Structures are given as C-alpha cells and as structure tokens.
What does this fold into?
Amino acid sequence: MNQQTEIIRENLTRSVWEIANMMRCIGENDWNAEFCGSPMWKHVYHTLHSLDQWFINPEEYEEPPFHKDGLNKLEIDSKETLNRETLFGFLESIEKKLNDYLDGLDDEKLTEPAGSRSRYERILRQFKHLHTHMGIMMAFIYEATGKWVFLSSTPREIPEPDEQGRVFD
It folds into this structure.
C-alpha cells in the first residue's frame, strides 16, 4: 500500500483546484494590477513556476516554452505579460506532470534523493511554498473584492461555482 503517496496525490488534487479557483477569482482589472511591486499575474506565475520546478527535482528542470529569464522572479520587472489562458494551460501541464511523477512513486521511493533532498522533503516544501504564495494572493483578492477565496484543503465539499466559475467562501 502506498498510503503516503496517495495522501500527497489527494492534497495535490485539492491544491490544483484551489489555484485554478484563485486564478478565476482574480478580477479582470486586477490581473495586471501591482501588488507589492509585481502584477498579480506574476505572483501567479511565480507560484506555478516554483511548483513545477521544485516539486520533482530542480536539477533536471526544463523551462516552459513561454518562459523568459527572470519572468518567475517577483523582484525583477518584466516587459512580458502572461495572460490567464497561458497560465491555466501551464497549470494543466503541471498537474499532469506531477500526477505522472506520483504514478511512479511508492512510499519507499519517497525517502530516496531527488537532487540534494529526498523526494518527500521536496514535495512537502513545495506545498508549503505554494500555500504561502496563495495566502498572499488571497489577501490581494480580498483587498480588491472584500471576499475570501474558498479553500478546499479541509475535507468539506466544494460548492457550486458562481456564473464566472469562481467559488468564494
């Protein structure tokens, strides 16, 4: 039985749903608005890029085709702008890649190294990083809308979305 791997998969599924919901909850006027010195889309990209790069093994990482140097760095100004469609496509590719990775793992393999850390440590660190940045973005969304984005991290049912596909708490 691969109990730990299945727990990771369940948490990944809920986290991906939360990211997608959060992205839908960002208002059209806020997608390019700056929060703490970076546009909201860049906060989203930073979060997704880190999940993609660090969940498996950053030493064997291939950048997405639309990536430019520094695009994932919040402290670097970018001339490029990424749209929602591009980032939803990126999230979909990340979800598939990470689920394929989990398909090849069992609980024993979690303790094996992936670069300089164990696979399990990499995964746990990425969940921590992911939810730290999601919390930051959720605060920006609350500031703009007065509403909290719904979190599915507890075993509660996910309610029906509104007409724009969003779920607020």
